[in-house]
Amino acid sequence: MxxxxxxxxxxxxxxxxxxxxRAVSNGPLARLGRRSQSLLVSRRECDxxxxxxxxxxxxxxxxxxxxxxxxxxxxxxxxxxxxxxxxLLASHRGLWTVVVDANPVYGSLTSLAPADLRPHAxxxxxxxxxxxxxxxxxxxxYVARMPTGLHLLGGENGDELASNVSVERFGELLxxxxxxxxVVVVDTAGRHPxxxxxxxxxxxxxxxxxxxxxxxxxxxxxxxxxxxxxxxxVNNRPPQWRDDDSGAVAELxxxxxxxxxxxxxxxxxxxxxxxxxxxxxxxxxSQTRTAIKLLGIDAVDRLV
Length: 304
Hints:
Blueprint: E1 18-19, E2 22-23, H1 28-56, E3 65-71, H2 78-91, E4 97-101, H3 123-128, E5 144-145, E6 151-153, H4 161-164, H5 167-180, E7 183-187, H6 193-201, E8 204-209, H7 216-225, E9 231-236, H8 247-253, E10 261-264, H9 268-276, H10 286-301
Parallel strand pairs: 3-7, 3-8, 4-6, 4-7, 8-9, 9-10
Antiparallel strand pairs: 1-2, 5-6
Helix pairs in contact: 1-10, 2-10
């Protein structure tokens, strides 16, 4: 009787351990390193998955909500923050959401949309024709429609909103938009009357500030009167910013009773997306996605 063939082993074919076709070290230190990396990746992915679930969880919305995104000075990044927050409300909550460019001089809001989705008319045109619009379909020619379902309502670059539109007329615009949208996000800057109107009417407010020492002075009195239950401070970090330059603002935000804060670090890929009108959350690196989703959590948790 012939002897059975010996059982073949992996080592008969591969002299070293392979992962995805590549030889790897299988010593104790190498195994420990791979295990540690796996735990770190899993933890990060689990944290982001939890944020994702919270953003998509259904919640009550009893009436139209107004969100004000402002700053103590221009150029702080309010337009970017407005887009990031509003996009999540539209994509993850499915809410009919519009962002309104209420900067004193019209900014670049509608340029954040793909070129073929930008409107043929402007915010100024809409304000002039409020009395003639009685359906949501008639709004389409005035808004840029993002792939997420978000609408952007802005003016022509260089036009001065503050000098052409009264506070009363702008208030009528906000009331009009609340008829058609579940959430109206107002992008403002500085302390002009339109920004004050948006802040006074807002259900919640995001205040965008750079971390530079010069921002600490104006920020201090604002924090004294801000309602932590409806205010978020967005610490917008520009490129090449050093940690030791942000001590004054960080100290203010760490004080007891200060509103919650979210830090958005500079991301070159996000900047390129915004400039090209191709913003897509899923294509960003994990750290940036997480910061943006934390902004969204603050927004959805305060919807009424």
